[in-house]
Amino acid sequence: MGWKKTLAKTLRKYYWPSVHSDIRKWCEACLTCQMRRNPKPNFRERLIPVHSEAVFAKVGLDLCGPLKTTERGNKYILNIVCWFTRYVISTRCLTHRPRAAHRKCTEIWHDDRISLRPSLQLHEFCNLLHIRHRFATPYHSMGNGATERTFSTFQAMLSKFINLKQEDWDLFVPCVTFCYNTSINEAIGESPYFLMFGRDPVFTIDRILQPQSRPQIPGPSGTDEYKAQLVSALRLAWQQHGSIV
């Protein structure tokens, strides 16, 4: 994810005097990370941000593949991205027409005609739930940029864990998705996980360093207070990053 996002995730709960330099040196010393980086800067016209008014009001969908067929028969990755929070729901698919795409309720559904080919079932699904199905320009990644961008990140991260035959990539998709959702998104200044759930996740390192700590679970008498705190935290987070995604 890069040294800046690694640093931001570390500083949420931990600090030591040389944390900035230590994190940067540690990331820059990783040979695999340096081999996957794109050293060429991209000079392009500034993108026009897309406005989204609520969580999952607008979503982008896209397929990545076909990839190397795994032992479980998976060949594609389907990413569903909430444009408000940038939260990613990722699933592994056997074909280019996954049924998982037909189970998401939203207001606007944005994809290209190449990845998810229109079908009568999809058309009836959108009409039934009053979903506006919009199409991006085929073979033009900028038309669905928020979703397309997730694949370049996923591919860079997966390449560091898969075997030489590239037949086990589907085992790491859930881990990569969790890492992506819990990292600070530079465009919105917060992690998609926090904007979705109103709290920071509990990482494995937290359980190792603080084994006695337990997540605060409200009892029957504390449900209303927990709800009020959650709504307040989400409202503040949404106001800080605005509705521009």
Automatic annotation (TrEMBL):
GO terms for biological process: DNA integration. InterPro entries: Gypsy_RT_Integrase-like, Integrase_cat-core, Integrase_H2C2, RNaseH-like_sf, RNaseH_sf. Residues 111-200 form the Integrase catalytic domain. One of its GO terms (molecular function) is nucleic acid binding. This is Integrase catalytic domain-containing protein. It comes from the Eukaryota. PANTHER family: ENDONUCLEASE-RELATED. It holds the Pfam family Integrase_H2C2.
